[in-house]
Amino acid sequence: MANTKSISDVFEDLFEAPLRAVTKAEAKYLKIWAEWLNIQLKLIGESTRSPEQITSLMSRAPTVTLDGSIDVGITMRIASVKKSEGGGSIGLQVGPVHASGAFGFSKTSTQESIFQASARFALSNNNADLSQFLSSQGLTPTSVEDLTKASELIKSGLEKIEKPS
């Protein structure tokens, strides 16, 4: 069974798919950071840490670098078939003599086109690190409580992302 799509749908898929993949990957970065924060909170417990110790801890958070290119291409076969049929018959009867005839015709034509489209995406997030992300959210961890807030911030964001709209 053939899958049919409009050309605009094909272009939409072609140009949006890589960007959607990057967006999903960034959501996964958040999950990794949330897990990392939870592990660190369990390791350090409720003990008081100096801001320098928290800064040192944050410097060890996973850093994600996305840098690359994606080549995407689509080939579509567009085919059409036209068929015309017709016919007729005639008959003549004069007394006991009868004559008749019939004729018919059929015409079939096909046409096929190949449509190719491609795109190249250069993707980069420079370096995504947890400290920069939290700073962009107005949070600079300097205490265990700040780390807990950071973990909760990421978790609540992920819950919003993962809820169906």
Describe the secondary-structure layout:
Elements (H helix, E strand, L loop, with lengths): L6 H38 L6 H9 L3 E32 L2 E33 H7 L7 H19 L3
Antiparallel strand pairs: 1-2
Care to describe what's here?
By secondary structure, this protein is α+β, with helices and mostly antiparallel strands. It has helices spanning 7-44, 51-59, 130-136, 144-162, and strands at 63-94, 97-129. Strands 1-2 form a two-stranded antiparallel ribbon. Strand 1 (63-94) and strand 2 (97-129) form a beta hairpin. The longest helix is centred in the first third of the chain and has 38 residues, at 7-44.
Number of structural domains: 1
Rough outline? rod-shaped
| Class of secondary structure makeup | alpha+beta
Helices, by number, come to 4
Strand content: 35-45%
Quote the average pLDDT: 83
Order the strands across the largest sheet as they lie in space. 1-2
Poorly predicted runs of 5 or more residues:
none
- What are the secondary-structure elements, in order, as H or E? HHEEHH
State the main characteristics.
two-stranded antiparallel sheet; alpha+beta; single chain
In short:
The chain has four helices and two strands.
